[in-house]
Amino acid sequence: MGMIASIIFIVLTVVGTAWFGRNVMRIRKNILLGKDLNRSDKKGERWKTMILVALGQKKMFQRPIPALLHFAIYAAFVITQIELIEIFVDGVSGSHRVFASSLGGFYTFLISFIEILSVLALVATFVFLARRNLLKIPRFHMSEMTGWPKLDGNIILYLEIVLVLCILTMNGADEALMNIGHSHAVGLTGDTYGFAVSSIVGPSVFGGMDVGSLEILERIGWWGHIIMVFTFLNYLPISKHFHVLLAFPNVYYSNLKNKGQFSNMNSVKKEVEMMFDPNADPYAAPAEPAGEPERFGAKDVVDLTWKSLMDAYTCTECGRCSSMCPASQTGKKLSPRKIIMDTRDRLEEVGKNIRKHGKEHADGKALLGDYITEEELWACTSCNACVQACPVNIDPLSIIIDLRRYLVMEESKVPSELATMLTNIENNGAPWQFSPMDRLKWADED
Amino acid sequence: MSEKIKVPTVAEMMAAGEVPDILFWVGCAGSFDDRAKKITKAVIKILHGCKIKFAVLGTEESCTGDPAKRAGNEFAFMMSAMQNIQVLNGFEIKKIVTACPHCFNTIKNEYPELGGKYEVIHHTQLINGLIKEGKLSMSGGDFKGKKITFHDPCYLGRANDVYEAPREVLQKLDAELVEMKNCKAKGLCCGAGGAQMFKEAEKGDKEVNVKRTEDVLDTKSNIVATGCPFCNTMMTDGIKHFNKEEDVEVLDVAEMIANAMDL
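Output (structure tokens, whole complex):
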């Protein structure tokens, strides 16, 4: 039996890890479809930002209540990983609580700590379920939050509840077994492990059960726990919950410049420089560019930078961006969260197409038009509220601007009033139709 | 303004063998918009009153290209930017002050890569500096007992993290400075940025400036201070929307200081 259990455990671990690895590599490949962007500078500042914003969740604490609840789940998630080491050793070797006797009091402390955090996480999970489903918190009820995104948010919370209940069942049954002198941990004596939660809850819930039932219960908890770990791990890549991993690199590679600074397009710069260069030969044939000429701006996900694509996979759809967006707040169609979700959905689709039909396949669809409409793009005031609000430094604005650039420069699709404004800038050096010669007239007026 | 102040252009100054210490970048709104011209004149009064050797570009100034860039037309932006950089570099300009956060942001952040490297400050930073150096003092003004709230322009605040300079200046006035529910990094846009100033808003259930004006009215302020000509327009329209022109005035920080400063 022990041998078979070990083999099942090893197979589960190998398959669970390999499948996860395969899906992560697919996401990596998709992200690398994006355009180049250098974010390898300022390493010190990047580490510092990552520690503060990702590890320390600095921006989350702008809203203290969800931040504290989220922190409980986050801390429990991180600390529980320590216990996994023991589970792996036990699972492979067939031992039981292999570190209990050697670590002694420290072991009790560690498991107690995990238990307390797990209970806090459980409470937080129930509050989150209530916030999502019972309380009418506007950002969870916007139009993009129906169907799969809504279900996704709830599934994660259900999985968390099952996971914590498994841990508590496992520890609780073990405590009840200790109580009646039937511990199967190696080299332990006494009638309790002394775990903070399960030494009380275990005997009071499971007390009175016979040894056989308790042992089965303990195994259900143990196997349930590890199965949930691998379920969760393999759920991540298809879920918004992938943020637990990508938050760190995404914050590391975030924009460190002033938020108001938009990128200057080098291709445009070169052309305009030519126009300004008195020595340039206006009749010279332009150098034949290798391959297809580069598109101005973005029509589809592959025209965006890899950082925008990483943003898309990092988004956990919390909606802080849209709750701060002036357009979203005043009932316009634009929602920065939807821009990011659309980018991810389209990128998944493009990735699937490439895997099925090869790199050159075109499905006739694009991010612009099939996912994001012009009306959404033109509602943006470029105020950066969405960028500021994002707890993991996602930048919806840069996607909006890249799409606008394509609309305007490749398709000349621009609202008529803006077309007038642009003509005025080109002809009069001002967005309004005033003569440039009148620019100093104000100085003579009363 | 009662007495007219002579506004020197850089060209005139250079012809007279002089170099300005600072260039006042007036901007399109400051040059052409009737409301914004008053802000321009207030800045001039402050510069002149503090005996700063300044000049303007006059007819040699043109749009920084900000609205073109935000609207997605990089060509129009690049043309404007390069033309301006040629002019500025031709005059060997080192330091620029502007009363428009959009010009401020563009020249400060987007021109350097294109060869235009200058020290750029917003007029509220200039005024704050002058007060700290003791060159500008205030005793007068019509602000005694008034309640003032400051509306953060996006391109000054979030875009460039300038939150304190305008507030420090306003605190020098004999008035009470109160904050709106959403201020500083959380400040709500007036609705004009990203080239929205030049078009009708998309369909929604409310105008952005009306929503922002509600925040203003919640504070029961007598004055909403701004540091951006476009915010000024939007807030003025918002106050009109609620028929509150009698109760709430929209003023630029420069206008308030020009009103209160000692000459």
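Chain B touches chain A through 73 residues (CB under 8 Å).
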